[in-house]
């Protein structure tokens, strides 16, 4: 009943915001970051383990499915143009989802199929919805980027408060159901699914901030977001974000004085952190990671031994955990790519992520991309595959696909086509790229 009311609310919201359609696409971005998956049942009314035939999915996933159906049914929408302009992307995502669903159904039944919808299909649909909205709204590129940055500002401030108080503040009852949870919070996570997901989100925010016109904002936001990353204890996010900042300092067209100021600030900030003056406990995981690195190498060694068995066909959703259990490893492969390779096949997974990268770098190849978006994607992509966030119930994959869309869409000063070309599908469509 609660889920039915929620879907009805989504339909009404879409109808009411018809003339402000950008709000329809921005809503799930906020939902994925301010409602953790472990608290989904509070909104949908469906137990996290599922309720009979109704799967447990994030409320934003339900919303994206509803919005997708509504826009496909609307004759005034331009979803067909987006699909037409990105035929290869559509084929890759659809093919991978069908392969994953078929493999899962054969080897594991229908139980794992909702996770394919939540972790693979819906995030990709969200990217297409973003591209469609950009085709309708010339200002949507900056609106999406600014919304992303606003989310990062809020999450960074919340993470710092969590770090100082050792309290999560929100959703504590929901988080406490996770095996890794501790009432004495030492690694901030904001309202995301995990500290590592927050690190991924903020790393993308650092790169996106470099596209802001007011040159003082990237400096201020980078400091704030870096502080937020430090509270997460994410080593990969910290290293990647520092590399992004250094890249910006030396590659941007800002004045020499601003470059010197940024470089000096980066050096000073790093020195205070390393000396323990700021965030004294943030770097403890570099000295003592509680065996995390050793377990990762054990999982990597196992993958090296078995990957040929899954070169063409995987064992279905969650099969990777069975492989680990057979080796008496109570962990995951600590990599989304490795997990999906075991579940759905090494070759198919490789092609899927190569397709994602190709889709993201279209903008930079055409020199049309939102400034900083491609770097934000690559930074998030590295972090995404450094842990298992994309293969468990988490919204990390959705954040990654949002960055994919930002990287591949046109910036505000680029015009989009008004209709489908009259040529046949087989003809060239380069002039109609969205």
TL;DR?
The chain has 434 residues and is mainly α. It is built from 21 helices and no strands.
Report on this structure.
The chain has one domain (2-290, 326-413). It is globular and about 60 Å long. 65% of the residues lie in helices and 0% in strands. The longest helix is centred in the middle third of the chain and has 26 residues, at 140-165. Residues 413-434 have low confidence and may be disordered. It has 434 residues and is mainly α. It has helices at 2-16, 21-34, 40-44, 59-73, 79-85, 87-108, 113-136, 140-165, 172-175, 195-209, 216-232, 235-251, 256-275, 284-287, 292-306, 319-326, 336-344, 346-360, 362-365, 373-384, 396-408. Helix 8 packs across helix 11, helix 10 packs antiparallel against helix 20 and helix 16 packs across helix 17 (336-344).
In total, the number of strands is 0
Question: What is the rounded Rg?
Answer: 21 Å
Strand content: under 5%
Coarse structural class: mainly alpha
What is the general shape? globular
Q: What is the domain tally?
A: 1
Distance between the termini: 39 Å
**Poorly predicted runs:** 413-434
Task: Write the topology of this structure.
Layout: H1 2-16, H2 21-34, H3 40-44, H4 59-73, H5 79-85, H6 87-108, H7 113-136, H8 140-165, H9 172-175, H10 195-209, H11 216-232, H12 235-251, H13 256-275, H14 284-287, H15 292-306, H16 319-326, H17 336-344, H18 346-360, H19 362-365, H20 373-384, H21 396-408
Helix pairs in contact: 1-4, 2-4, 2-8, 4-7, 5-7, 6-7, 6-18, 7-21, 8-10, 8-11, 10-11, 10-12, 10-20, 11-12, 12-13, 12-20, 16-17, 17-18, 18-21, 20-21
């Amino acid at each position: 009943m609660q889920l039915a009311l929620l879907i009805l609310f989504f339909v009404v919201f879409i109808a009411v915001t018809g003339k402000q359609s950008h709000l329809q696409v921005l809503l799930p971005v906020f939902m994925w970051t301010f409602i953790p998956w472990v608290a989904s049942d509070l909104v949908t009314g469906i137990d996290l383990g599922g309720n009979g035939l109704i799967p447990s999915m994030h409320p934003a996933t339900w919303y994206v499915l509803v919005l997708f159906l509504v826009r496909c049914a609307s004759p005034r929408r331009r979803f067909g143009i987006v699909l037409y302009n990105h035929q290869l992307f559509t084929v890759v995502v659809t093919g991978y989802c069908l392969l994953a669903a078929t493999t899962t159904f054969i080897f594991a039944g229908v139980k794992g199929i909702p996770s394919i919808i939540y972790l693979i299909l819906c995030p990709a649909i969200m990217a297409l919805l973003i591209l469609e909205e950009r085709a309708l709204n010339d200002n949507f590129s900056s609106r999406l980027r600014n919304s992303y940055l606003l989310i990062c500002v809020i999450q960074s401030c919340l993470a710092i408060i969590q770090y100082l108080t050792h309290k999560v503040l929100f959703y504590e009852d929901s988080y406490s159901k996770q095996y890794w949870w501790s009432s004495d919070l030492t690694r901030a996570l904001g309202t995301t699914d995990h500290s590592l997901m927050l690190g991924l989100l903020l790393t993308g925010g650092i790169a996106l901030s470099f596209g802001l016109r007011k040159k003082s904002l990237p400096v201020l936001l980078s400091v704030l977001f870096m502080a937020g990353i430090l509270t997460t204890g994410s080593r990969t996010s910290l290293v990647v974000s520092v590399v992004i900042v250094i890249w910006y300092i030396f590659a941007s067209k800002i004045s020499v004085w601003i470059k010197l100021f940024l470089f000096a600030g980066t050096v000073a900030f790093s020195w205070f952190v390393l000396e323990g003056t700021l965030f004294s406990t943030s770097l403890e995981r570099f000295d003592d990671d509680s065996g995390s690195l050793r377990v990762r190498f054990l999982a990597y060694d196992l993958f090296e031994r078995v990957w040929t068995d899954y070169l063409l066909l995987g064992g279905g959703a969650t099969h990777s955990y069975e492989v680990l259990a057979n080796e008496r490893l109570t962990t995951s492969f600590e990599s989304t790519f490795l997990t999906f390779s075991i579940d759905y096949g090494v070759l198919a997974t490789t092609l899927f992520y190569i397709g994602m990268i190709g889709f993201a770098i279209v903008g930079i190849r055409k020199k049309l991309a939102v400034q900083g978006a491609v770097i934000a994607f690559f930074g998030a992509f590295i972090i995404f595959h450094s842990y298992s966030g994309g293969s468990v119930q988490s919204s990390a994959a959705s954040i990654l696909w949002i960055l994919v869309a930002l990287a591949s869409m046109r910036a505000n000063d680029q015009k989009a086509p008004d209709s489908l070309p009259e040529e046949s599908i087989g003809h060239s469509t380069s002039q109609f790229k969205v």
